[in-house]
Every structure is written in C-alpha cells, then in structure tokens.
Specification:
With 483 residues, this protein is mostly helical. The protein contains 19 helices and no strands. 53% of the residues are buried. It is found in: Cell membrane.
Length: 483
Amino acid sequence: MGQPAQPSNRSLWLSLIVLCAGQMMIVIDQNIVNVALPTVQRDLGFSEANLVWVVNAYVIPFGGLLLLAGRLGDMLGRKRIFITGIVMFSAASLLCGLATNEAMLIGFRFVQGIGGAVASACILGMVATTFDEPRKQAQAIGAYSFASAGGGAVGPLIGGILTDLVDWSWIFFINVPIGAVVVLLAARNVPHETGLGGISRKADFLGAALVTAGLMSGVYAIVNAEKVGWAATETLILGPISILLLVAFVIREATAEEPLLPLKIFRSRALSAANLVQFLMIAGMFGLLFFGTLYLQKVLGLNSLEAGLGYVPIALVIAAVSLGLSAKVITKFGQRPVLYAGLVLIVAAFVMLSFARVDGTYLVDFLPATVVMGLGFGLAAPAMMGLGMSAVTPQDAGIASGLFNTTQQIGGAVGLTVLSAFVTARINDLGGADDIVALNGGYHRAFQAGAVFVVIALIIAVAMLRSSERVAAEQQQAHAPAL
C-alpha cells in the first residue's frame, strides 16, 4: 500500500470529519426510510407486499457487497473507492426522490445500496490507518463509532421531520448536497493511497462472485424470514444455498493465490473476537431501536415525531462518550477493560428496559435505560473496533473494515428476525396483539433476549481476548534473548 505524504494535523482531523460525515449519511439512510413508508405507499401506489422492498432493495446489495468493496479499496486505493461510492449513492438518492412508481423506487434503492456499500466498506480502514498514535486513533475510532450509532439513532427523527414538514422525497434529496460536499472535501483532504497496485489477472474473481452471491442470498433469506417465516419456501431454498455458497467461498479462499479475504487474518483472536462481539451486540441493539420505538408508540402512546425525539438523548450520550470520554479511558485503562465495562452497561440497560411498565412514563421507564445504553455503547464500540483493527496490517485494513461492516449488517438482520420471533410468541402466549399488556410483555422478551446476546458477547470477549493476550505473552517470552 503506497504511503501518502504526511499531511498536517488540521488536515488529518478535517479528513476524519469528512469520512464520518459520509458514514453518518449512509447509516441515517438505512433508518430514515422506515417512518416514511406509509406516505410512500400512498403516493406511489405501493402494494402491501411490495412495500417491504423499499427497504430490502437497499439492504440486500449493501450487505452483500461490503467485503468485495473493502478488498477493492485495498487494491485500488481506499480514497478512490470511497469517493466513487459517495457519488453513486448521491446520484441514486436523487433518482429515488424523483421516482414516480414502484419499479423506479425499488430499482434506484438497489443502486443506492450498492453505492452505500462501496463508500462505507473502506471508511473504518481509512480512519484506523490515518491515525498512528494510539490516543489519536482511539479518538478517531470513537468519532467513527458515533457516526455509526448516532446516525442510527437520529435517522427516524430526521425522517419524521422531513416527511411531516416537507415531503417524503426529501429523505432522499437531502443526500445530494451532503454527498457533493463530502466528495469535494474528501478530494482535497483525505490522504491519497495508491493501493496494492490494481487488480491483477490473479485477482480472486471467483471468490468475489461466491461471497457476494452468498451474502446477498443470505441477507434476502433473513429479511424474507422476518416477513413470511423460516418455514416459507423461499427461506428454505435460499438459506441452504447461501450457506453452500459461503462454504465454497471459504474453500476458495484457502486455495486462491491472491484471495479476496485472506483467511490468515482470522489467526488474530482479537479480530475474530471483535467481530463476534459486534455481531451479538448489534443483534441486541436492534431490539432497542425497533421494539423500543414500538413501546413508545403502542404502549406509551407517543406519536412518530415524539418517539423519534425520544432517541435524541441516547445519540447525545453516545456522542459525548465516543468523541471525548472513550479515548481518555482507553488510553488510561486499555481497550479490553473498557470493552468489558461497556458491555456490562449495555446488559444493565436491557435489564432496566425489561421492567418498563404499561402505565409508565418516558422519563421513568425509558430515558434512564437509554442513557445507560448510550454510555455502554459509547465505551464498547470504539474499544471493540480498536482491538479488531489493530490486529491487521495496513494492506488488509480495507477488507477488515468491510468485514466489520458485514458483521454489523448480518448481526442486525439476524437479531431483528430472532427477536421478532420471540416477541410474537410471547404476545400470542399473553393474549394477542390487541392486548396492550401482551404487547408490553412481548417487548420485555425482546429486551431480555438482547441482554442474553450481550452477555454471550461479554463471555466471548473475556475468553478470547485473555487467551490472545496469553498467547502473545508466550510468543514474546519465547523470542526473548536468554540471559
């Protein structure tokens, strides 16, 4: 990977702002659409069955192309791939806002998902390699964590405001000026990288095809199962096909001369543990974002705008912790203890939510738990990503970044599907969806399951990271000179 000339400190931090702005724009778009779906359905005449494809048409290519886009960044230069993705994402956003029928919006959302994957796959890799000094790197990864989590929290709020006060098309149009500014600033301020020398004839095109097809079919099977169930014909066919394609991909990577995903990077327990922890943590966090919103609206009786405003405090806490506190405590105590503390706080927040009352209030039953959740996530996410990214070489930073993003997407999709099944079963046991007590009991089950996910993540982190530290110490001792 060609090294850029050393930029100024001011330019480095401006580069970070640009990258985080691009990440936040993409993350917000994943959540901003949901609140506008009823309006989109009315204006464009969507059928109930096709409405879900406004979401799925974006999620499927996004989740399927992250690994490939990350590796392309390593080969061709991450800055080049990032800018290409932002241009594609912004252009597709404009077309989405101009869509006049079902087919146009679904097709342009698919292109938007491709652009989002291409842009976001390399961002974490660029953030981690741009900052070498440990404390600055911790601050930079904290900012990236805020952009990812904060975007998810404020997406529904922004979507509600734009849809209610302007028009649903502006949830897409707003990306155009933001994307233009990001591209212009990125061209001037993001450090240039030459990549590994381009795509050679030995490039792993077969591996790229296998993993893209495997991930796309897997994501489709998961999101389809959420709507029609795991026993549906499509799910039963595509699920095994996805598994077979991904197994074939692993076999291919073990034998390819220039693999798309070098399996050697998984020799690092830190990278493997970080991805497993993220998978489980995000699976649980989707329970808060999705079922927490339902609790606010269906149990406490808040409208969509009020429910969106209800997530502002967690976004503010994540911002304060990720952008300020996390780097200081990571520098002082190390990444592992901070990760453990953050996961414990997330578990505590889920436990608090599992006691939310039918006759409760936002200030008592929801706000305290979300503050604790924001504190926990703001500590855990930067520490987790720092541990994972510190375990890979700069040449593999793009594929590692794509891997983290893929884990996040799959974790969210799997988590929401599994939690939905738990919720539905509990609601049916307690009396059905017409009973507010049954609804609240179902949401409690989602929060309890989220706590279990994060407890498992904590166990994995403690076991694997301690083992990793012991192995490193033994290797260092074995290579130490004899006295």
